[in-house]
Amino acid sequence: MSVKLGVAPIAWSNDDMPELGGDTTLEQCLDEASQAGYIGVESGGKFPKKSSELIPKLNKYKLHLCSGWYGANLRKNSVKDEKELIKEQLQLFKDCNSPCIVFAEVSGSIQGDPNRKLSTRPQMQKDEWKEFCNKISEMGKFLEDQEMPLAYHHHMGTVIETQEDTERLLDNTHDSVKLTLDTGHMLFAKGDSKKILENYKTRLKHIHCKDIRKNVLEKSLSKDFSFRSAFLEGAFTVPGDGCIDYIPLFEILKKNNYSGWLVVEAEQDPKKANPLEYAIKGFNYLKNTLDKTNIPIEQS
User: Fold this and answer.
1) Do the domain assignments include residue 297?
2) Among 96, 210, 236, which residue's Cα sits nearest to residue 153?
C-alpha cells in the first residue's frame, strides 16, 4: 500500500466567505501547494471549469486533481435533475483523472449562516431518510458507472453530520456510495473516526485530514456557536497543530491496506494563518507520522 498527499484550496480562498483570501490568486495557491510538498490539490471556486484550462495549470505546478466538493440538493431535486447539475463537474473530474467526487447534501444546511446555531441543523424523519438513501444509492450507481465514485462527506450543519448519521447512511445505501472521512468534522460532531475506519473499510474512498483546536471546540459546543463562528474562532487547523493523534488512525489504514489520498484541509482566516506556513506544517506532520507507521508516500 501507499498513500498520496494532497491539500484543499480553502486555506488560501474560502468559497463560502469570499472575503477570506478573496485577493489570493489560483496561481499562488497552486504554487504554494507544490512548494509545501503536495502532489495533489482539490478543486475550488477559483478553478477553471474546463479541463482544457485546468490541466495546463495543474501540470505547470506538477499537481494532480485529487477530488473536490459537490453540494447536492437531493432532498428537493429529483435524481434526474441532480445528474444534470453534476454533469459539468463530472466531465471535468473525469478529464483530470480525479479519484472521486466529494459529495454532500447541502439543502437546508446552516454551515454558511452566521446566525444559525449548530444545534438547529436540519434533520430528517424516518420516511425522508428512506427516500434520501434511495436517491443517494441511485446517484452512487450512476457515478460508479461513470467511473467517478461518489465519496460522501459528513459535514457539520448538514443532515449528515454525526457518526450515527454517517453509519445510517452507509448501512442503508448501495455499496457504490463511498465515504470521505473528515477527521475534524467527525470529532466536532463527537464521533469516533477509528470506529468508522474499522467498520467501514470497504466504503472508505477518501480522507480529509483536518485537525481541531480542543479549547475552541469545547467553547464552540458549550456556547452553541454557528459553524461559521466556530471556524472563525479557529476551531479547525492542520494535522499536527491540534488535538488529534493520527498514529492510531494510520495504523488502521495500514491494516486495511488503504491506498488513496490524504488531503490536508482546514478552514482558517489566511490573514491569521498563513496558508503556505500551515500547508508545510500539515505536510511535515503527515510525512513524519506516516514514516512512524511505515506507510510509504507516493512522490508523483
Assistant:
1) no
2) 210
Q: Which residues pair with 67 in a beta bridge?
A: none
Q: Which domain holds residue 137?
A: 4-292
User: Distance between CA 282 and CA 273 in Å, rounded?
Assistant: 12
Grid coordinates belonging to 101: 467526487
- CATH number of the domain that residue 101 is part of: 3.20.20.150
SS3 assignment, position 105: strand
Question: With b meaning 16 or more CB within 10 Å and e meaning fewer, what string describes 224-247?
Answer: ebbbbbbbbbbbbbbbbbbebebe
Domain count, the chain: 1
Q: What is the pLDDT along the chain (300 residues), one digit of tens a residue?
A: 899 999 999 999 988 887 888 889 999 999 999 999 999 999 999 999 999 999 999 999 999 999 999 999 999 999 999 999 999 999 999 999 999 999 999 999 999 899 999 999 999 999 999 999 999 999 999 999 999 999 999 999 999 999 999 999 999 999 999 999 999 999 999 999 999 999 999 999 999 999 999 999 999 999 999 999 999 999 999 999 999 999 999 999 999 999 999 999 998 989 999 999 999 999 999 999 999 999 999 998
pTM comes to 0.97
Residue 229 in any domain: the answer is: yes
Please name the residues in contact with 255: beta carbons below 8 A apart, sequence gap of 6 or more: none
The answer to whether 227 touches 111, Cβ cutoff 8 Å, is yes
Half-sphere exposure of 197 (CA within 13 A, CB side): 23
- Report DSSP letters for 263-300, one per residue: EE-----TTTS-HHHHHHHHHHHHHHHHHHTT--B---
298 inside domain: no
79-95 helix and 126-145 helix, angle to the nearest 10 degrees: 40
